[in-house]
Amino acid sequence: MKHTELIKKLNLEQKCALLSGETVFTTRDFSEKGIPAITLSDGPNGVRKQAGAADHLGLNPSVPATCFPTSATVANSWDPALGEAIGEALGEEAAAQEVAVLLGPGLNIKRSPLCGRNFEYFSEDPFLSGKMAAGYVRGIQKNGIAACPKHFAANSQELRRMASDSILDERTLRELYLTGFEIVVKEAKPRTIMSSYNLINGTYANENEHLLKDILRRDWGFDGAVVTDWGGSNDHALGVKNGSTLEMPFPGGDAIRELKAAVEHGKISEADVDARLDELLELVLTTHAAVEKAPRTFDAEAHHALARRAAAESVVLLQNEGGLLPLKAGERVAVVGDFARTPRYQGAGSSAVNSIKVDSVLEQLAESGLQSVGFAPGFDRQGRPDDARKAEAVALARKADTVLLFLGLDEIKESEGIDRSDMKLAVNQLDLLEAISQVNPNVVVVLSAGASLETPWLKNCRALVYGALGGQAGAGAMLDVLTGKVCPSGKLAETWANAYHETPARAHFGGEGRTVEYRESLYVGYRYHQTAGIPAAFPFGYGLSYTSFEYRDLKAGPAGVTLTVTNTGSVAGAEIVQLYVAKPDAKIFRPAQELKGFARVFLNPGESREVTIPLDDKAFRYWNVRTNHWEVEGGCYELRVGASCEDIRLRAVITVEGTAAPNPYEGKDLLHYQTAEVRKITDAEFEALLGRPIPESKIKIDRNMTLGELSHGRSPLGWAASAVLGRLLRKSMENGKPDLNILFQYNMPLRALAKMTNGAVSMGMVDGIVMEAQGFWIIGLLRVAYEAIKNVILNAQLEKRLHQAERTKENPA
């Protein structure tokens, strides 16, 4: 341990107190012992340090900061160096605001396009996610503060996110849902990792020995601090025993007493507490020193310029019939769509940034060189029909050479705490598009959305430009692309399916019950579409340009490939060259091909450059559930180089030496996993893959029953509470402004009352509420009252002891 002498100065109660927060976003300090407090803050795409009363959902105002494009946007740049530049700016702003730990980036796999938080995540592919996230982490940590990649792990939906159980086989867990985190840990060495809310195969991530000890710390060599998601601790003592360092936000004295009692009763050892405390002290002391010496100002204009560059490099040109784009100087354009006036530039929830400034297309239009014939909002943002607005927009479209129609998902559709209900644009937006296309065929649709959409309406526009959620400078960046000042170079980091029913996880995403079955296994995104032969509207890695590129002279081997790329067009631009690995004769089922490398190269017209894409130790491996180890199936592999997963330009066959491991699936009937027909997986097949029975999925009346599920209990008080929450939630949705606090409460398990109320509720009180819900009405209420009084008294006594102990400089006996 690094801080043995300091730890010796603390008694057991002080040690336990340090392993949970003192406020919503700060750790506890013992200044007399030389232990300062540090501040943690949300920050995947901008620092969100709240100026007044703090909350974890971003409901109260925060200090102004640069809002960069979201991770889902920047992933389309396929540029880890850009991620590093953004990370460095985020780190500068965090330190300037005296934030020591920035909670981000998020790199959960986009298992389903409906996950409400997909705008915060990079990709459906772990290799791309890991490389992009590693860039961010390197940048954030350059000035000595800590990044905190999240949410570790298999956290792919918002519904019941604090108590859902992700059921998946070990191979799928390792290859798909952990590989991105492995890349980050090994290549960028983050000082912290955030554990996820959910269970994984029956055990909460934050107390999961296999996840935190076996994999994160032993296999990957992580020696930093694990921080719980806010309210994500279930059994604090087991968390500490199994590798979780800091419980957040401020669970109060009950958590301290719980941990102390666990040591005294032998549930865990004091050595467990000391190990976690050593990790915390290393984090606190090093980051506090970095914050102390950091300047309190930053160059806001330079960061705005970086945000604009990042947004521009991440724009994806999806359709451009007849070369409608780029628009010529002086071209007469009608600007239609509410998003042109009030941009949708970030997602809702804990990542929401109080932006220093926000550009809009209408404000930036004068500098674009285009001639505007006017603006019309065109539609109601929340989807309500408005014939007058539609008629106004259609009349304006008649006057223009080209219509710039700004469409997208509104704030209700994409938010932390709630999953999307579909992949569709609002009907009133599509009606407007169709009406405009009938009077002016030159329609350019500009999309603002943090996730993929169904696009059966493509026939009604000649050009489609995806800006995702472009941050505070996204409007200017989009105009740069539309006018040709920037050649579009973004490529999709996720597959756009033709329809939601053609996505692989559809049958087992966002359903009732406590378990979430990952029956699709490895077949997520392009891995599914290509292996099962299901065409996509826009495939993974796809994106058009204003120029063209030629690939030639491929040289390949197990260490990687080298090729020459030439810009054969008349415009300078960047190409993203992608390397996929395939084994067509594989005996062990696997996707048709998988991304294992990529390179972004900028070329002037006519310029050629040799590009090298290395292959690392993850290129040919698979997880063998029989040997419990990474193995390689020997034989011939195809290395495929292309402009997307569907646009393969060059191929080479190489021979790779295998590890001669036994086939882990020998004797098992996994027919539909061989063919990737994952929508046909039977219970027997999924059980064979898991190697155990499928766990029961039903609501139980216990500490992990959510507030919204109290209607399933036996208490009239519970029924009333659930009904009130449900009514308030529905009302907020109908008003077009989802109440994130109510959303959080509705999906919050009862135990979180003891973790999220600043010590006002103890776990004993929660147990009284559970008794009430189980039908022990009088006894349950009496226990709540008794435990409440007990909690107040014990908390006061605890704080008195801690402060007295801090004032004495004598070593504890």
From TrEMBL:
It comes from the Bacteria. The keyword Hydrolase applies. GO terms for molecular function: beta-glucosidase activity. One of its GO terms (biological process) is carbohydrate metabolic process. Pfam families: Fn3-like, Glyco_hydro_3, Glyco_hydro_3_C. Coiled coil: none annotated. Residues 575-645 form the Fibronectin type III-like domain. InterPro entries: Cellulose_deg_GH3, Fn3-like, GH, Glyco_hydro_3_C, Glyco_hydro_3_C_sf, Glyco_hydro_3_N, Glyco_hydro_3_N_sf, Ig-like_fold. Keywords: Hydrolase. Belongs to the glycosyl hydrolase 3 family. This is Glycosyl hydrolase.
